From TrEMBL:
The lineage of its organism: Bacteria, Pseudomonadati, Pseudomonadota, Gammaproteobacteria, Lysobacterales. It comes from Arenimonas metalli CF5-1. Pathway: Isoprenoid biosynthesis; isopentenyl diphosphate biosynthesis via DXP pathway; isopentenyl diphosphate from 1-deoxy-D-xylulose 5-phosphate: step 1/6. HAMAP family: DXP_reductoisom (MF_00183). This is 1-deoxy-D-xylulose 5-phosphate reductoisomerase. One of its GO terms (biological process) is isopentenyl diphosphate biosynthetic process, methylerythritol 4-phosphate pathway involved in terpenoid biosynthetic process. It catalyses: 2-C-methyl-D-erythritol 4-phosphate + NADP(+) = 1-deoxy-D-xylulose 5-phosphate + NADPH + H(+).
Length: 394
């Protein structure tokens, strides 16, 4: 029997994770309903989703879209409330009408609403890894104080969550092993990457994702952000979190126990598995993902990550070890660098150079409140933008 109907606030509904979430939700109309949807600026796409899922509230975070959203909802004859601006995300994330929040916004723009959902004690499906990198301690504190149920959607963390002891403890856990696909440029030398284009960087071999995370996968910064995410979500120190490249992206991650047992979670590379797990936990529901065909796969490969060709992973470990504000600087500099790369203002090799320059220029200080972290975030963005304008980090 499915439990009571769950009402979902889906933040970042027009994105890749947003679309996968709606696909799973639509398969289980008796179990889930959509209470709120958000998009940043694509009003037409948001309206189409409102017509299909009939939420109570729709948020357009770019206030310029408010009139078009309100008029569009009226023209469709929908009773959906139109809301605008970033504060409206926090409002729907904490709204008692929604028991589940899917945090699927990209970047630090998702941090306030993720924290709001945690404080309000929601079932929180966390895809927005940048908010954990930026404010991991505050987020874990908010989850504990708010009584939220945090379910990782990032496939590696979802896999680890599934493989950790069921009692929620860490008894007998030796290491966490995060798998990395290696991205579209696996095996290439650093020099050969100088001229790669945004479209080449976004052509991921196994996953179809938003452009920011696709570039992060190509630089291996995605894995670096995930190491920091794992450190917060699972409470193990950095020296017990390792990365192994596994090009097939079928083993989503592993937990190594002191008795020599290594537990892994496997599946086809499709985010609907992790999303369905988070939506229904502790039950299991159909996600639409095809069964794994091991004989057709034939083999699994593994190799160590190439830190010389992909320095972003080492930069993330450096920021994690420095602690305090360093992960916030790393994340902000990376967001600016990726955006500049996608706009043709920075070469691919300029991405790690820019991040390193920002980490060098802004030594770690203790991280206090969210306001402190947001001030660090803003300062690192200013610094990174200035470096891009002056022609990169060199
Ligand atoms: P995407 O670019 O496809 O979608 C991003 C969503 O966020 C869109 O709905 C967009 O409207 C919204 N958005 C963008 N900027 C915003 C802003 N400033 N304020 C408010 N909303 C804004 O991204 P995605 O690939 O779906 O990734 C979403 C998050 O999930 C990221 O943090 C990513 O790292 C994480 N994630 C994604 C995948 C994946 O397979 N796509 C896997 C693991 C983790
Ligand atoms: Mg991942």
């Amino acid at each position: 029997m499915a439990g009571p109907l769950k009402t979902i606030a889906l933040l970042g509904a027009t994105g890749s994770i947003g679309g996968s979430t709606l696909d799973v939700v639509a398969r289980h109309p008796g179990r889930f309903r959509i209470g709120a949807l958000s998009a940043h600026s694509r009003v037409d796409e948001l309206l189409a989703l409102c017509a299909r899922f009939r939420p109570e509230a729709a948020v357009i975070t770019d206030p310029a879209g408010y009139d078009a959203l309100r008029e569009g909802l009226r023209a469709l004859g929908l009773p959906t409330r139109a809301l605008a601006g970033p504060a409206a995300l926090d409002e729907v994330a904490a709204d008692p009408a929604n028991d589940t929040v899917v945090a699927a916004i990209v970047g630090a723009a998702g941090v306030a609403s993720t924290l709001a959902a945690a404080r309000a004690g929601k079932r929180l499906l966390l895809a927005n890894k940048e908010s954990v990198v930026l404010a991991g301690d505050l987020l874990m504190q908010a989850v504990a104080e708010g009584g939220a149920t945090l379910l990782p959607v990032d496939s590696e963390h979802n896999a680890i969550f599934q493989c950790l002891p069921a009692d929620g403890g860490r008894g007998g856990v030796r290491r966490l092993l995060l798998t990395a696909s290696g991205g579209p440029f696996r095996g290439r030398s650093r020099d050969s990457l100088a001229t790669v284009t945004p479209d080449q960087a976004c052509a991921h071999p196994n996953w179809v994702m938003g452009r920011k995370i696709s570039v992060d996968s190509a630089t291996l910064m995605n894995k670096g952000l995930e190491v920091i995410e794992a450190r917060h979500l699972f409470g193990l120190p950095a020296d017990r979190i390792e990365v192994v490249v596994h090009p097939q992206s079928v083993i989503h991650s592993l937990v190594d126990y002191v008795d020599g047992s290594v537990l892994a979670q496997l599946g086809n590379p499709d985010m609907r598995t992790a999303i369905a797990y988070g939506l229904a936990w502790p039950e299991r529901i159909d996600s639409g993902v095809a069964p794994l065909d091991l004989a057709a796969l034939a083999r699994f490969d593994f190799e160590a990550p190439d830190l010389a060709a992909f320095p972003c992973l080492a930069l993330a470990f450096r920021a994690l070890e420095a602690g305090g504000t360093a992960p916030a600087v790393l994340n902000a500099a990376n967001e600016i660098a990726v955006s500049a790369f996608l706009q043709g203002e920075l070469g691919f090799l300029g991405i790690p150079d820019l991040i390193q320059a920002c980490l060098d220029a802004m030594p770690a200080s203790p991280a206090g409140s969210l306001d402190d972290l947001m001030a660090t975030d803003a300062e690192a963005r200013r610094l990174a933008r200035g470096l891009v304008a002056r022609g990169g980090a060199r």
